Amino acid sequence: MNRLDNLPSKKILSLFMTCGFPNLTHSKKIFQEILSHQPNIIEFGLPFSDPMADGPIIQESSKIALKSKITTKQSLNLIKQLRKDSNQTSFVIMCYLNTVQKYGIKKFISDIKGIVDGIILVDLPFEEEAETKKLLDKSNVHLIKLISPMTDKIRSKRLLKEAKGFIYYISATGITGSNKLDYSEISKNVSSLKKLTKTPVLVGFGIKSKKDALAISKKTNADGIIIGSALIQKYFDAKMNFNKYIISLRKFINEVKI
């Protein structure tokens, strides 16, 4: 069974957090807090030294995690420990191809089998995914597709042909944590995608508040939302006071659960 195959039809909530941020001990407590809210999906970001698709907030969290000496193995062990606490929430890893290649693709997939339900390989081109996807399919781990406003219809059809889990629709061109959301444009593009696939379409990038979450729900045909940068920003807003951060994080997640 893959938990991503049993997502609700609407109002799917996916929450992203960087593994090992701000350190391994606190990271586990952060994920436990997130898990206690029972989001439909948790995305585990594996720290990387050159996270080119991430905005400054996630980049900084990755930098801090790496500074605390977090390793890929420790991140995977953390995810494995958290899986014991929940059999309901879908677990998805989000990372860059270099991280997986350095670890060893076959070993990486073997180590995540039965623990995570999906993986987002940000910089793996569709044209080069066949071998990796074959290994993932054998382990019942879905390769999640990323689609942006710049993806034309012909390419979208190719990407969505065998899509599983959910579609990560990037709400704006650029990097994570973008400032302005064009709900009309999002609605138009999401509706186009939903004509091509029955796989849930989730909107990510730039969702920072309850207002944004409600707007995506009411003004677009999206099946859910993905929030990442806004969760991490709360740590810096709390001036890196961990106890204050957990309280702030708890409040924020309750607000965006629509």
Which features characterize this protein?
single chain, 258 residues, alpha/beta, TIM Barrel, nine-stranded parallel sheet, 15% strand, globular
Topology:
Layout: E1 12-18, H1 24-36, E2 41-45, H2 56-67, H3 72-83, E3 90-95, H4 97-103, H5 105-112, E4 118-121, H6 130-138, E5 142-143, E6 145-147, H7 153-160, E7 167-170, H8 183-194, E8 201-204, H9 210-219, E9 224-227, H10 229-237, H11 242-256
Parallel strand pairs: 1-2, 1-9, 2-3, 3-4, 4-5, 6-7, 7-8, 8-9
Helix pairs in contact: 1-3, 1-11, 10-11
Summed up:
With 258 residues, the protein is an alpha/beta fold.
Give helix and strand order, one letter per element, not per position.
Answer: EHEHHEHHEHEEHEHEHEHH
Fraction of residues in H or I helices: 40-55%
Query: Which residues form runs of ≥5 with pLDDT under 50?
Result: none
CATH architecture: Alpha-Beta Barrel
Number of domains: 1
- How are strands sequenced across the largest beta sheet? 5-4-3-2-1-9-8-7-6
Categorize the overall geometry.
globular
> Distance N terminus to C terminus?
27 Å
CATH level 4 superfamily: Aldolase class I
* CATH class bucket: Alpha Beta
Q: Count the E strands.
A: 9
**Would you tell me the overall average pLDDT?**
94
Determine Rg (CA atoms, Å).
17 Å
Which fold name is given in CATH as the topology?
TIM Barrel
Largest sheet: 9 strands, parallel
**Which structural class best describes the helix and strand composition?**
alpha/beta
